[in-house]
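Give me a protein, keeping tokens residue-aligned:
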Amino acid sequence: MHFCIPESSKYYQGKSDRFAYCILTRRSALPPAAFIVFGVLLGIIAFAILILIFNYGQIWFQAYWSKAAVTFLELFGMSLRKVNARTIVQARIMATQAGLGKQLSPRVLEAHYLAGGDVPRVIRALIAAHRAGIDLDYDKACGIDLAGRDVLDAVQTSVNPKVIDCPDVASGKSTLSAVARNGVELKIRARVTVRTNLHQLIGGATEETIIARVGEGIITSIGSAATHFEVMEHPDTISKAVLERGLDAQTAFQIVSIDIADIEVGENIGARLQADQAEADTRVARAKAEERRAVAIAREQEMKAATAENRAGVLKAEALVPKSIGEALRAGRMQSQSGNSRV
């Protein structure tokens, strides 16, 4: 059918176009099956759109109104990659509201999530560092997180230093034991205030190294003191001496201060060692005396045996005298004095 609209109609009044516009409708030459297929495809597309809206509509709406817009295709791709879309979107919303959203795209956050990182904790650490004016970028924060360190706790410790007990209570010891040069023992408990060194957090030594180094420095400083009275009169000299050693080198912390919390006088180790040495010397002397006594007794027994042997020889010789005299008389080599004879 062919319909034409004349030029004189109200539709064309005041227009300069002189062509006649016609609406041409023809009977479609497509078969009915094509309309069915086309309708099915439209239905599938509409159903997929409804599923996307049903699954991700709330997340998308939340992100849109938070100015951290994300597309439905990005949300669907997160599901295909086994990524928690709500976690990524909420992390991006936090970053956007804190002024960090431009450099943190959903794909960047997904990469850290797929690497096994804690995305919300990294974002909180970046926000805390940004508010405190600490130089910490996203890549460094992700590296700290993937290295197994708590990046949020590191930033909080960098802003608000924490106190470490020396020695650690978990080790079972409550005090450090050190001996001055006069032999008197001092039992000391110290507290070390540290802040996180973010530049050396990856690969830097942990709290255990700080505690060990501080304990070693305290013991060395006390051991170099002439008497324990010097230490008790000026405990700050120990703190200064330990700080000057640079004990926080190659560690994840920066030592702010070392404070001596408690000092107790213990035993007189020097006197006890001298007494123990004297006792040991006495035992050695006794052992040597016993050894000499044993040698003397053995020598006495040897002399007695030699005396008995010599006495036996004398008796044996005495027994041979009568025999020799008889043999001499029989041989005529000897005559008895009773018969006025001589040998």
Summary: The chain has eleven helices and six strands.
